Amino acid sequence: MLSSSFAQQKAPPSSDDGFDLSSSINQWLEDNIDPDALRVMQQMDAERVQKLFAELQQAMQGTNIYQLGTLRETATQVVPILQKYEETWPYGAWLQARLDEMEAAQELQRRMKTSASEPATLPPSPPLKLERQVWVRSLEKRPWPPLARNYVAQLKKIFISERTPPELVWVAEVESSFNPSARSPSGAAGMFQLTPQVARDERLSLWPWDERYQPDKSARAAARYLRTLHEHYGDWELALAAYNAGEKRVDKLLRQQSSQSFEAIARRLPAETQMYVPRIEATLRKREGKDLNQLKAPRN
After folding, report:
1. CATH number of the domain that 42 lies in?
2. Is residue 299 in some structural domain?
3. pLDDT for 20 beyond 90
4. Peptide bond preceding 208: is omega within 30 degrees of 0, i.e. cis?
5. What total number of domains does the chain contain?
6. Residue 61 and residue 25: Cα distance in Å, rounded?
7. pLDDT in tens, 148-199
């Protein structure tokens, strides 16, 4: 849960492309962290954290899924460092939710290596069928995130009121493990990891207090945005891809491929998005027993 002191701070500086932590971390640390804690981080961890975030952002925006797996060990070590201090805890919450993607990337590489004709080389991109299998297996015995029990029923009512399938509240598990204080280095924030531009489009305030950190308002904005994306694409895979990668990127790839399917553009999407859609699918199957094509918009 976001502490009251952090919730009442102004949001870190942002632009339409989000907060670039790799170039602005030192100034942000100076503005927000207790001087004693800042000295510790500067002496021991600041360079390490900055390097990880820069490499992770690069890997997530590239198209090579396997690159995500190379960062898992470092990310696992950095998470407790970020979670140690109140001021950096939101970034730790975001990074914690990304560890599953890094682990899945490692598992995919292991599986593809076993079938590659040249084991010493990087294997080809994994088929979507294999990605789905890896995510289903990963979630097979996964209990609900601890915070989910505080929010799921409440959030489903909000999604229903916005005529969005209530099962999609589980997007919050993938985005943040239902942690309303999570913040990414690129500036997405809250339980549903809304970007500053989406927040503004959905009438959320970013200043003086950032409403993306308020679960009800964040959920309502996410539900409206998801419904709008589905109305545009007529397909939940594409809607979720656009939620993660942006409509412009998805639209451009669909035009280039003369297609209207996620499968046709999947390997040209950012690695983060390639992992994101199958992960959402597996999460819905685990939590609700439904596939994306079974979702229906509620009628008020």
Report:
1. 1.10.530.10
2. no
3. no
4. yes
5. 1
6. 20
7. 999 999 999 999 999 999 999 999 999 999 999 999 888 899 999 999 999 9
